[in-house]
Amino acid sequence: MPKVSLLPRSLTYLLAVAEYQSFTRAAEALYISQPSLSQQIKQLEDGLGVKLLDRSGRNVKLTPSGEMYVSHTQRALKELESATRSVQELKDLSRGYIRLGMTPITDYLTTPLIAAFIKKYPGISISVEEMPQSEIKDSLIEGVIDIGVAFSNTLNNDVCSSIAHCSTLLVEKLGVVFSSEYFSEDSTSLSKHFLEETPLVLLNSNYALRKQIDQYCLNHGINPNVKIETSSLSAIIEFLTHGSLASILPVTIVKNKDFLTSIPLLPELPHHSISLVCGQSVRTSPACREFREFAENFYSV
Q1: Which of 14, 59, 121, 286 is most buried per CB count within 10 Å?
Q2: 35 lies in the same domain as 121
Q3: Helix (H, G, I), strand (E, B) or coil at 100
């Protein structure tokens, strides 16, 4: 159930009934009596001059007017929560809270960034959640997260227009990655046919990197020999170290892993841009604004 302490009591009660579809269950969740709950909502309906709830069925449902009113109320609640966070964050950034979303394939970049930021601003807390890129876009627009780390070249214009800020952190090359012990490739590049002849472990099709790989294969007439799909970067690395599998990953991932080798593919795999995408809260939250500037400077060094 959402945090509703910032709202008037009648709106708090209405959201509870809308969530539980029952006056009884809503009253129990709010620790109040059912008559008090019903009275508050009736006063709200009388004040608006419309029925917000349909009480005729087994479950209480929102009327069309109720659905519209609740939608506006939920948006207002998000604005109130954002305003509360902003006034609670001191100008010296001794306090603050950032909600960060990232794809699994970008955590190798995001982890050192977050560690460096927290070291400089120990009073700021960061909540990190891994999710497919499509969820990052939706979560930013809906105000569920403040900042996302994503592949900017897959962000369409409609989504970018709904995002307060978007900046490229760095551009990376992709390479074919495999175990240094299992494969003994001495060449400086591999033919595209390597992807057809060698079993592959890749991210599943929900992820932006996989969409890039699939498009590359389609463009070059390649039928990739995909044996394993996963949503976990760490799982991919484990599979590479314990078997005869190869993958396609950003070359930076391999730099500090002596047990893995990365070789370019010909024709060249597409480069990808890692970007910081920010929701509306970056305009009002000192912590979010500082994180954005910190990230841009962190990768420009």
Answers
A1: 14
A2: no
A3: strand
